[in-house]
Amino acid sequence: SSGINAEYGTPTDKMLKSVLLVTVGLILSVKGQADDNGTSEEDYWDLPDDSDRKCSPGQGLNNANRCYDCPAGTYNFEGSLVDVCFVCPLGHFSTESGSTSCHSCTDATGKPSTTKNPGGSSSVDDCVEYDDVIGTFNRATVSLNILVVGKDFCTDIEDMLYELSHVFPFDGHLTKCDVFGLEETEGTMTEMNFKISPPAKIAWQIYEMTHFVHVHVQELNGYVQLGSHFAELLMNLLNEVSAEGGGSEWLGFDMNPDVLQIKDIEVREFSPTFKGICSYLADDEDSFCESGGEDFLPPDFLINFSTADPTQYCNSENSEISKIRNRIEYGEPIFECQRQSNCEVRFVGCVDGESVESTHVTVRIVGVGSQASSLSSDSFDPSSFTVDFGYYANGDRLMGTFNPGEVTNGCLHGEDGPQGLNYGAGEPTCEKCPAGSFINRCSGQCELCPYGTWGDDGIHCNSCGWHFDTPFTGMTSADYCIESSNWWKIDDWDDELRRSTGRTEFQLNLTPTMNMCGAITAKKELDDKCSEMFSSSRLEWPEEGIDQEGWNLERFICSASSQVTEAYSQSCGEDWNSSWDEIFNGLMDGDWDYLLEAACFVGKHVKELEGEDTSSDCTNVDINVVEMSMPAEFQGAMDMMTASLVAPLLDEMENLVNTDFSSLADAAMAMMGNLGMDDVNDLLGWKIGNNVRDIVVAADRGFRVSRFEFSADWNADDFFCENGNAKRDCRNVRECDYSMCRVYERDQDKEIFCKVDECNNCAFSFYAQGEGEEAEEVVPYECASCKDEFRSTIPNGRLRGVYKNNVEASYMCNEGYVPYDCESRAVCDIEGDAEEGRIDYPICVVDQCEYPDMVENGYLWGDWRSDAEKWSKQDWKYMDDYQCPYINFYCNDGYMPEDWNNKVECDVREDYRVREPVCEHEEDGEGEHDDGPCHFPEFIPGGYKVYHSDLEGGHQGAWYMCYEPFVMTPNKDMMWGHMNDGADASQAYKDLYNLAFCSEDATSGIAYFPECKHPEEAKHCGLPNYIDHGHAAEFMFKKDMMENGGEYDDNMTEDDGEKVEMDEWMKDKMDKDWDMMDDMMPIAARYECEEGYVMRRTMKDQMGWCRKDGSYEIPYCVPREEYFDVKLQLQNGGDKKMTDKEGRAFGGVVLSMTLDAEGRVLTDWQYGCNDGSNNNAAGAICRTLGFMHGAHIPVSKKMAKSLTEEREFGWTHFSCDYDDTLTHSNHCKGMLYEDAMEEMGMKAKCFGFDMMAVKCFQNAVFNIDINVSFGRKKIMCNAKALKKGNQIDLRSMVEEMDVKFMLDEEEIEEIEVQSNKKGFFSKFDLRKKEFECVTCEIHMGGHLVASGTACKED
Q1: Helix, coil or strand: residue 128
Q2: What angle, rounded to 10 degrees, do the helices at 594-610 and 580-588 form?
Q3: What is the C-alpha separation between 885 and 822, in angstroms, rounded?
Q4: I need a surface site. Which of 370, 975, 1085, 1243 has the fewest CB within 10 A?
Q5: DSSP alpha helix (H) spans, 273-361
Q6: Residue 631's Cα: distance from chain center in Å?
Q7: Percent of the chain residues past pLDDT 70, beyond the cut
Q8: Is residue 162 within 8 Å of 498, Cβ to Cβ?
């Protein structure tokens, strides 16, 4: 059993609370400290005086100490610390002298681009597409050379780098680490070189990043110097607050800034180079690969070297293998051909001898250069070489000597053609590389084609291209290349490529193991030191908790360390014995109570080892007590982009099992020494600083990874469709837009279907019922399009773009002209006469708008034409084609535009009438306290003040509102305080929703403000506490709707006894995306109206709720005398296809009638006009009729025949923003037809073919309804599948389904399930079975998708 003591108020709880108080106190003490002489905190953190620049941005300083303008191809940016002209980084250029920035090639060319010239580009002509740089090879090597002056970064550090060289992915490794003595004034210089060889795309990205650092290395040194400056300021400040009278004596710091040695460090060089690793020798135009032709393969040879001394190096540590490799590849020449520069030598691998202790190393020699073809084994003349393995624990320096053996031929020129070198068993053999792999030019071995490439000959791999990825490694055909980006090639954002649906499944098993002997020994030394400093009574944790007097951080650490065993006994119990597997599984299930169990698991090992003799490295202690292992197993899936980075990383990390982590501890100590921080006592002014350091270092030395296993796999069906196209993720694509498909008059009686096609980049595909032989099938439908081509120009105007429906286009009037009737859209009559012209074009007339030339208390900026130019080519369609020309104006500080409208419109329709711009003064009103300690500004980030006034108790308050799309978020400190005073979360939110609060007496004028946050940051939607003439009676939070770790509570009980039922609709909203919702903020609310007002309800009655995009749907209140209702019905002429079993019409022409609050008729039945409408509006109509969703459909002939009475149009341009509203929602808008005609004239005219018709359905997504019945010897499971009201034939999906029959929830074994048109059935004798109910379940992909039950009593 667990045995955990969860009682509140134990010494352990008090200890943890005190830790929190100490941490908060430290932060506040440092943050609030000010200089006694009146120097402000801002001045204290100013840059040092000697950091001031001599030159202006865009200039550098020459050798004559004079400023000069940076030439083209270079720049110096605003805020730079140094007077240096920086070379433009890769992918950028500058064309003018004195530049303060470089232009991005991608922005300048409108497509992903870079530059080849690392020396600074001065023209956009230097920009090239990425495929022009890396298109000829599949991998590349990035080499980085670093020179650092001032410190030795090799000694005790290089072993760590060599260890990681065998772990880093893409063959990343340290090739050199040398230390040189310089002149006495400069001290020591360290030179390091790193290499990494990832896929070409990743390699170039690394090259671009490292080149950016390279060109700014002087700036980097400037920040190094500032680091020393600010570290000294921080240490002095901590000393001040720790000193007597400083206010925080309990910190106990006496830091010594003089020990820091940061300012001595200078980076002299940070130089990357880039070289393509070609699977063949490229042509002369390839600047990154050697020339020689694609089919040329250089001669290669193999030779073994063996150690002369009986020592084994390969199976011990990663660093030794890395040192052997570096000596061979980067050391002094071993072969004569190296001295003649016509060969290069590569390390292949090494093995340790089995019978005799020895090491055998295989080396590969490859011809290079113009004389490569003449290379032969006769010219090698190999010599022995020595590897320096460094100092060992006993102080000896280990030098390994390797002697050459016999030279043999390599694998590139065998009788069976080029082959790869197989070194799996330590004995090199040659074998043909399979398709999907290539021969690595360096190692000669077969390797799988990396991500983003493919190969079919076992020799080469081909790049898919910069903008392509592959599902996995080892692809054998270009058909596996998946395009991932196309934004620069499209004219509409809807055509942008959606991400692939494919996922790479992975399994990761690892076991971190800790030898705790060293850490416990160091802890005992800390406890001994503490006992010398404090008596045992002063180390006991006081019952009332710590106070500042008599305590400091050293005493706090000592007290905590001395009571670890006691804390374990109190919190976990002496009988605690949970297994790590149980703890890990609990954590993976999201049960955070197991965090304490994990702490007890560690605490138990500490407690047991503290009681043992830890001398002599714990050789006398049971290894199970000394070592603590925490095995873990993870399963998951990665998308294609993530897998291309993570999978190679984890695959290479299997070498962690051979990593000596003590080298990391040595490196950390060496780095601290270089920075002057190794003596922590001297640094902090403590007596136990070094002891704490020793515990951390000892823990690092004792760490190892005893198991690391990674595997990954992929399934082609997850990535590709049957037609070979990539499957795309269409989840975020809106529902089909039927306005994109205009229907000919001859097809008005056809029912048009639409689907989002995952095999065609989520495009909309339209279908109709076939005719003739295809009458039983649904066939593709060719939507109507304009038979005339839209002109590129009109009189005094030009074409901006044609809409996707091919019957509408947008135009822009030329300079000096404006659109007549404020309309810029052209419309094609698809049934029109060709001779008369089918397209009605907009008219551009002379611009006679006379705008004001100034604004009192404001200024003019931009107009309708400049605003239109801001929209990119993909976004032109979002401009309002029914908008009058205008100019913009903005108001000065302290003023605001009248009615919040900052546009001065010119109404061309009314003789070019222009309204005057007005900037009103922002009145603060009575009770202003701007000059006092409490000040409420007119604006906060993302919001503005509504009003402010005095509150009870002499406090001040102000109320704010947010601009769209920002979300109002109450001040959480105020909410916590209000809840501590007895208010629940609902009441606290309601009281403090948008309130800013200030108490002059209590807080010295510090005001607490609400915040206006973006919905993604806010994690809620800001449901209002008050609505016009109404209020929120109750708020509901995530916790109210969930219990037992995420299970839904089907009924939420309110204080007044009512129940707000949480039906399936609300449950569907509570998916994984809602896990990120802020627990303190509501997700739903119930509203009430004031007396005399009537509520316009939502589809959930009085409820309002949050949407995931940060918006919300709420009811609103209107005066009873102004209230009206719209009654709706669907008329379809009795079409049985549009009528359900209950006789309800779920499709037809929409008729509406307006009623007053008493139900009296205000209008006759009227038609709706579908101009400007959308499917969300159709859904609102259908929800009013009792359905859940809807879509617009054409008016069929049967519907039209039923419309025998002449009726008027009542509403037009009716649309809704969301698919969860009713028709009167604030997120829906529409115009009375007569108002539209008066405002827009004939442009608003609606005809018979414009009548609105909708089809209603319950499920917008795929859904299966099941009806179960049974007889004595047969069970029937009739299944009906629907999506958007359309019936889906399940027979084509039978193979994907797993159908189960159950009696009283127990599955019937060994039963044969058969299918027919109605669903599924099974012949099964029920006569001798005892049961109450029969259940049918349908599973797809391992998930339950539908279920139905029938019982005897039914």
Answers
A1: strand
A2: 150
A3: 7
A4: 370
A5: 318-330, 336-339
A6: 29
A7: 84
A8: no
Q: Cα torsion for 956, 962, 963, 966, to the nearest 10°?
A: 150
> The tokens 């299970």 sit on which residue?
1047
Structure token digits, residue 247: 């206010």
How far are the Cα atoms of 340, 810, 949, 956 from residue 998, in angstroms, in the given order?
82, 53, 11, 5
CB 163, CB 317: distance < 8 Å? yes
pLDDT digits (tens, 9 = 90+) for 1176-1213: 899 999 998 888 888 888 887 778 877 878 889 999 98
Selected residue with higher pLDDT from 545 and 162: 162
**pLDDT (tens digit, 9 = 90+) per residue, 1221-1250?**
999 998 999 989 998 888 877 778 888 878
Closest by Cα among 633, 708, 700 to 667: 700
CA distance 602 to 605: 5
Cβ partners under 8 Å of residue 1117, min gap 6: 1027, 1028, 1029, 1030, 1089, 1090, 1093, 1094, 1095, 1096
- 1274/1326 Cα distance (integer angstroms): 8
For 181, residues 6+ apart whose C-beta sits below 8 A from its C-beta are 188, 189
Residue 619 CA, distance from chain mean position = 49
The residues near 505 (Cβ < 8 Å, ≥ 6 apart) are: 635, 636, 637, 712, 713, 714, 715
pLDDT higher than threshold 70 for residue 1057? no
Alpha carbons 387 and 402: distance in angstroms, whole number: 8
Asked if 688 contacts 526 with a C-beta cutoff of 8 angstroms, the reply is yes
CA dihedral 1008, 1014, 1020, 1023 (to 10 degrees): 70
> How many angstroms separate the CA atoms of 130 and 140, rounded?
14
Which residues are within 8 A (CB) of 1090 and not within 5 positions of it... i.e. 6 or more apart?
1029, 1030, 1117
Alpha carbon 579 to its chain's center? 35
The burial class, CB within 10 Å (0-12 / 13-18 / 19+), for 1344 is exposed
Q: Please choose, from the candidates 922, 894, 918, the residue with its C-alpha nearest in 3D space to the C-alpha of residue 904.
A: 918
Q: What is the pTM of this model?
A: 0.64
Task: Please write the tens of the pLDDT for every residue from 453-485.
Answer: 898 988 888 888 888 999 999 999 999 999 998
Distance (Å, whole) CA 532 – CA 530: 5
Amino acid at 821: D
What pLDDT is stored for residue 320 in this prediction? 84
Q: Tell me the sheet residues that pair with 1060.
A: 1052
Q: Are 1219 and 1111 in contact (CB under 8 A)?
A: no
Distances (CA, A) of 492 to 206, 489, 872: 32, 9, 10
Residue 720: CA count within 13 A, CB half-sphere: 15
Burial 565-590 (b: 16+ CB within 10 A, else e): eebbbbbbeeebebebeebbebbeee
Cβ atoms of residues 135 and 288 within 8 Å? no
Rounded Cα distance between 141 and 23, Å, is 46
Question: What is the secondary structure of 1316-1332 as a DSSP string?
Answer: ETTEEEEE---TT---S
- Please check whether residue 213 is in contact with residue 169, taking contact to mean a CB–CB distance below 8 angstroms: no
Residue type, 777: E
CA 47 centroid distance within chain = 35
- The burial of 592, by beta-carbon neighbours within 10 Å (0-12 exposed, 13-18 middle, 19 or more buried), is given as exposed
Under 8 Å between Cβ of 784 and 807 = yes
Q: Helix/strand/coil (H, E, C) string of 1132-1192?
A: CCCCHHHECCCCCECEEEEEEEEEECCCCECCCCEEEECCCCCHHHHHHHHHHCCCCEEEE
Give the residues across from 695 on adjacent strands.
none
For the four alpha carbons of 1156, 1160, 1162 and 1165, in that order, the dihedral sign comes to positive
Q: What is the Cα–Cα distance from 19 to 10, expressed in whole angstroms?
A: 14
Tokens of 694: 């020793």
